[in-house]
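Question: Hello, beginner here. Any chance you could explain the protein record under this note? Any guidance would be welcome.
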Amino acid sequence: MANKGTLVILRHGQTDYNVQHLMTGQRDIPLNATGEEQAREAGRVISVFQFDKAYASNLGRAFNTAALALETAGNQTHLLKDGKYDVEQRAEIAELHTGDFTGRNHKTDPEILNYGRRYDKPLPGGESDQQVVERVQKFFDTEVQPRLARGETVLVVSHSGIMRAFDVVLGFQETPQPENAGWTKRARVPNATPTVAEYEDGKLVRHYRLDNPKELEAANQNKPPKPPKVAPR
């Protein structure tokens, strides 16, 4: 009989930096009230799973998303240790180090807009996307893959840059060429919205996303208003 493992990965809940379009990187910005709601809703969404192991990055917004989600799920009490959820924090899945751009608006800052990002080009004082993929690959190979091969169900809570790295690591998309600038311009990674990857004997068989109603609500609130329709003359 095949060993069927499951990996559930999600980005942390919303922070004030997210709302303000500021590059957060490895600055330890906490969840805001909306982010906490999103984390709890993620818990309701993932309550269909029974996790054998939970990981989060070593940044508070990811760890607290994981803890709130596990608590709200209501069926993960086997992960409790001394009254707290046993979520292992790992630096390998911390957000891309945004260096000199940290705390600056990525939609309006001229230096950021004109920087000319590439897959292999580090941000000033920070990391490249390629470096992030390499550390996520190592984390997956050493920590997660063996568990999936044994048929375990694993939760990983991280960041938008790490979710994009997982797309490459898990084979959802091909590894970008070093000169590739377009891969960083894909659609936004929604907050606290689980992606599920199912494995048999350590091999990926399918993956899909589970919507988070609280994330969708927040995304709609943050959209700029549509211009009024002009009646034809």
